[in-house]
Amino acid sequence: MDVLLQQILNGVVLGSIYALIALGYTMVYGILQLINFAHGDVLMVGALTAYTVVTLLNHVAPDLYGPVKLVIGLIVAMPVCMLLNVAIERVAYRPLRNAPRLAPLITAIGVSIILQTLAMIIWGRSYKVFPPLLPTEPIEIGNAIITPTQLIIIVTSIVVMLALVLLINRSKLGRAMRATAENPKVAGLMGVDANKVIVATFAIGAALAALAGVMIAANYSIAHFYMGFMPGLKAFTAAVLGGIGNIYGAMVGGMLLGLIEALGAGYIGDLTGGVLGSHYQDIFAFVVLIVVLIFRPQGIMGERVADRA
How much is the pTM? Predict the structure, then answer.
């Protein structure tokens, strides 16, 4: 039971991060029917930007309270990622909006490679040690352990996801986003500026990615130019699992994928003598992706939609 509780806590932490990243995928897909494979690299830029700011603060104001440094790093990283994602939409995706679906997909992969290369040029190839800025004293829940950083990740993710739900359901921008996702042409006739809605969607998704990137860097104390690739793929899997294009599905899919990964690495790893343990935990996410695509391609909360004539 203690092992189960520990793996559940680990899974909730992972799931919280995956859910935040998956929201960016699912919001863009819901409006543009586009899978933005560069989303994980926007996360990476956010983490490395925060690392640069925190490192600078450590030199300029070494006595500044650690959590304050982290918040300042996040405050700088978010607008940087938002501007970057908006620029990507304007330069790479908007000209291909009416092109066959394969064209923007290939472009997204190209943008991902460009961002990784630029990050490697700016920050170098070596791994950056993200300074520990939060308390490290573990918190015991029963016989399970959770760190203050992990607890902050869970609480922050829940608050941000609730705020996003309120934004989508209660605000004017949220209504415009839902209308554009339903039918952009009709929404345009009703006075909705589709371009502004799309830009806002990319900006919000980038802010969530920056937050997730800082969370990952703070939790694992590592930041590097390739760090967004695997979380991005797993978040895409979470979005597909929940039903890509569905906000609630992204949250549910992220949490489920985190739990599946943690429990799989913990229990199946023990049963196989460590062969499928933590070193091979990535396999569980992609097994889930294959199973979902075969048996329920619309995802848990997605709906079957007939092809339009």
Answer: 0.91
